[in-house]
Design brief:
By secondary structure, this protein is an alpha/beta fold. The chain is built from five helices and seven strands. Helix 3 (66-76) packs parallel to helix 4.
Length: 138
C-alpha cells in the first residue's frame, strides 16, 4: 500500500497582515498547508510544534531582523528551506542573508505572483530531492 504524502507546509512571517493575506492568496491554489504569523518571536516555536518545510520571512519587521530569524531557523532547523522577502533590496543585505541564513532565494516586494509560486515550487522540489538522497544514504 502506498503511503499518502502529506501536503508541504509553508510558514510565512511578516509584520504586515496585508502581506500575509496576499501571500496566502498567491499560494493557496498550490495545495500547500499555509501557516502565517505576524510575530517573528513565534516562528521557532511554530517550527518546533508544526512540521514546516519552507519558511518565507520578511527581512525588516520592526524590532526583529529577518536575517537574524532565518539564521536562528537555520541553526535549529537546518532542513527548513528559507526564502527572504524585502522591500529594500541592496547587495550588502542580500549577501548577509545568503551567508548567515543560507537562503534559497532573496525576493523583492512587490513580487510577481508567478515568481513566488515558481520559487516555492522549486524550493520544495529541492527539499524532496535532499530527503530522497538522505533516505537512500541510510
Amino acid at each position: 500500500m502506498k503511503e499518502k504524502k502529506s501536503k508541504p507546509s509553508v510558514l510565512i512571517v511578516d509584520d504586515e497582515e496585508q502581506v500575509l493575506t496576499a501571500l496566502r492568496r498567491t499560494l493557496q491554489s498550490e495545495g500547500y498547508r499555509i501557516i502565517t504569523t505576524i510575530s517573528p518571536k513565534e516562528v521557532l516555536d511554530l517550527i518546533h510544534r508544526e512540521r514546516v518545510d519552507l519558511l518565507i520571512s520578511d527581512i525588516d519587521m520592526g524590532d526583529e531582523s529577518g536575517i537574524d530569524l532565518i539564521a536562528s531557523a537555520r541553526a535549529w532547523y537546518p532542513d527548513v528551506i528559507r526564502i527572504l522577502l524585502t522591500g529594500n533590496a541592496n547587495l550588502e543585505t542580500a549577501l548577509d542573508a545568503i551567508n548567515s541564513g543560507e537562503v534559497f532565494r532573496y525576493l523583492t516586494k512587490p513580487w510577481d505572483a508567478q515568481v513566488i509560486r515558481d520559487t516555492v515550487r522549486d524550493a520544495l522540489s529541492r527539499l524532496d530531492e535532499h530527503r530522497l538522497l538522505a533516505t537512500a544514504d541510510r
